[in-house]
Amino acid sequence: MRRAAAWLLPAAVVAVPLWVRDSFFLNAMIHVFLFGAAAQAWNLLGGYAGQISFGHAAFFGIGAYATAWLLSHHGLSPWAGLWVGAALAACASLLVGYPTFRLRRHFFALATLALAEIVRISFLNWEVVGAATGLYLPLGYRNRFEFLMWDAKAPYYWTALTAFALATGVVWVVDRHRAGRYLRAVEQDEDAAEMLGIPTRRYKLYAMGLSAALTALCGGLYALYVLYIDPYNVMASRISLLVVVIALIGGRGTVWGPVLGAPFVVLLNEYTRAWLGGAGSGADFILFGLVVVLLSLYQPRGLVGLLAKPARPVPVAVAGAGAEAPEPPPTAPREEVVLEIRDVRKSFGGVQAVRGVNLSVRRGEILGLVGPNGAGKSTLFDCLTGFVRPDAGSARLRGRPLLGLAPHRVAWAGLGRTFQAIRVFPELSVWDNVLCGAEHRGESLWEATAGEAPRAVQDRATALLRFFGLWEARDRPAGELSYGQQKLLSLAMVVLREPEVVLLDEPAAGVNPVLVEEMGRHLRALNAAGLTFVVIEHNMEFVMRTCHRVAFMAEGQVVTAGRPEEVQRDPRVLELYYGR
Fold first, then answer.
1. If we measure between CA atoms, which residue out of 393, 384, 394, 474 comes closest to residue 434?
2. Ordered domains of the chain (ranges, CATH)
3. What confidence tens digit (pLDDT) does each residue in 381-420 have?
């Protein structure tokens, strides 16, 4: 039955012009498809990548003007003009996106709003494209397939439906493969995604360019439909607002959100204006605002959330509660130094957080980094991983310099990291979280868009989830796991690609004692398999059982380093850490 309905509904939508002759309804449906396609395009950037844009009217207008100007001045078929407009919009978006993606959240939104106004005012004063007068499309090309212009509405209906299907298909492909996973990771926690090696700016630019190109295609088709354009009707801020509202009401960050939101919003818009006439100007947006407020209160996921069936909770065994894995034999670190830190310094104003740290990490060891709060341990990690630029010093991983690299390039060099606060992607499944930790160096955008992770990566992800006791929870959102399970998941994510050195920031903090013991066994087992760890931890019992060596930091510098029992007995450590 469901399969039959899945075929009958699209067939019925395609056949609407064959049995409906109401011009007003067909006009409304053409707008549903065109603005629904534009909302799908916005969804790639604002929904999946989380970069809220209020400037998509600029790309819509660029596509409309490119198609109309090339046709009216040079007789170029829209089959070429549409793609020229898409390419111009994509280039414009990349030129704007590269500097503005340094901004986050509302600052980026304000930048895109300013962009739309700049483009609109520029076109209002640009005589080449008609300035404020606008452009008329030549009527002599009507009813010719190569020019996509007709007297009847049915061909426009099918053309707009094709554009809607194309945009939805593109979003579906992105959603089903690696690119969609990475974009959602960027949306939920950009810094965590960057530390897993995901080049976040590249993927944001990818989403913006693809989004702008699809929006421009919609603008070009709109120009062919209305036959006259000016900056007021193809670059108005209401167009940007409309596509945002469609995606939000339908459910942003989902394939079907704009599909549901477009008919709801656009038909409400068209029929509200028709019923109320001039007296109802603005009434549609009052209704939209009311709907957005109600959905925000009762179903933030939009119409998709209202229609989705609530998932049944699946009981998941707490890691560590089952049979204990056999303790791996103790390992002896090699003499080879894999990470060399020399004279690293970092000040914040007059506070010297890190003061000339020198530290060597040997291959195959678990090095504990201990000390009182404020000693500079996490700041040192931030300096090594590119989140903070140190004032001086050097750090080399296998002889290659690390300091000054972006976090994703630090990850590519072979340094992994977990954070003091849990940094998993709560709305992604456990399985998708782990796969975000795959090796991204050399991964092309095409591979990420059209294909899944290689089978070897999926096999290792499966083995890690089984190892950490999370396999039964693989399809659940990571945010539903317990605090301790999320700690284990974050560790699985960072060790998937087997980095040279893994920096762990308080892995046992806030975890129940059973899971702390389990965490220690996991670290020793991973270390026995060849991984090197540097662990910041305040749980001294955990440190004494787990670490080969311990370095004690206080007041921004390493005071002493050696075997755990030696450091624990050091008078300077007793004075600085315990106050005695």
1. 474
2. 22-236 (no CATH), 356-578 (3.40.50.300)
3. 999 999 999 999 999 999 999 999 999 999 999 999 999 8
